[in-house]
Every structure is written in C-alpha cells, then in structure tokens.
Design goal:
This is CDP-diacylglycerol--glycerol-3-phosphate 3-phosphatidyltransferase. It is found in: Cell membrane. This protein catalyzes the committed step to the synthesis of the acidic phospholipids. By secondary structure, this protein is mainly alpha-helical. It is 73% helix and 4% strand. The protein contains seven helices and two strands, in the order αββαααααα. Strands 1-2 form a two-stranded antiparallel ribbon. α1 (3-23) packs antiparallel against α2 (40-65). The longest helix is centred in the N-terminal third of the chain and has 26 residues, at 40-65.
Length: 191
Amino acid sequence: MNIPNKITLSRILLIPLFLIVMLAPIDWGIVTIGDEMIPYTHLVGVVLFSVAALTDWIDGYYARKHNLITNLGKFLDPLADKLLVSSALIVLVDLGYVQTWMVIVIISREFAVTGLRLILAGKGEVVAANMLGKLKTWMQLTAIILYLLHNVPFNYINVPMDEISMWIAVILTIVSGWDYFNKNKEVLSQR
C-alpha cells in the first residue's frame, strides 16, 4: 500500500465522520454570514467534505509525480469519490436541499459504471477515470459545497449557483456515463 493509496483510504475514512457531524442530532448553534444563517454543523461538514475532496487531487498528483500509479489506486480512487459524493448527496436529500431524482440519477450512474469497471477488470483491464468523469466529479463536489454553505457568496447576487452546479453535475453525470458505456460497448456485446 503506497502513500497515494493511503491518502485515498483516508478519504473513505472521513466519510463516517462527515455523516456523524451532518446527521447526529446535535445542535452546535448557528453562525450568521451576511444575511445567511448557517448551522455550525454545515460549516464543519464543509470542512470535512472539502478536506476529503482535496485528497482526490493530492493522491493523484503524488501518484503521477512519483510514478506510483497502481491498479489498486485506479480502482480505489473512483470508488472513494463515489462513496464520498453519494454520502453527501444523500445527506442533502435528507436536509431537503436537493431533489431526490437528481441523486438517484447520479448514484445509478455510479453503480452502472462501477459494474462496467468490474466486467472490464474480469477481462484484465482497468479503466482510469477520464477527463469527462473528472469534470463530473468536480462539478458534483462544487454543488455539494455550495449547498452546505447555503449558496454563500452567490446568494448575495441572487444567483442560485448551488442549483446551477447541481444541474450541470447531473448533465455531466449522464453524458460521462454514456461515454464510458459507448467506449466499451464491444465488451458488453461479447458472450
């Protein structure tokens, strides 16, 4: 287990802590930012989520810089992303911030692509995330952070950037999922 893979595992280990902070019935109070009242739990959740999301960039950078890219890393990295994003999106549905159907579309795509990766792995192929998949992930991360921050600072200029980011994330989710399956359709057609 090399350092980038350990960093990826740390991302997975931050998920339960994020969930406890966001879902435990603890009232830590509220902070006022401008006209927006944000629960402290959301701010702590943003920090935990952001640190976990940042590890995605750190592990990839470190692995490329030190030539430590492994098949385990290619598998764990997107899995960690899926677990982190799915957990946060389910929390946002629970809070009533995001529409359920959007989260179902995103999580369904993640299961489908993971299934495709497993089929390819059975044939000895490991598919790393492509640029469209990475853009989709970063847009999802952006939307989640903006929702947890109650759209600060964009609410001051009346731009629902949290909602806009989520719509873009859903569109990229669909397009990148189609791209994965289209590029690997010959594998699915084999008997």
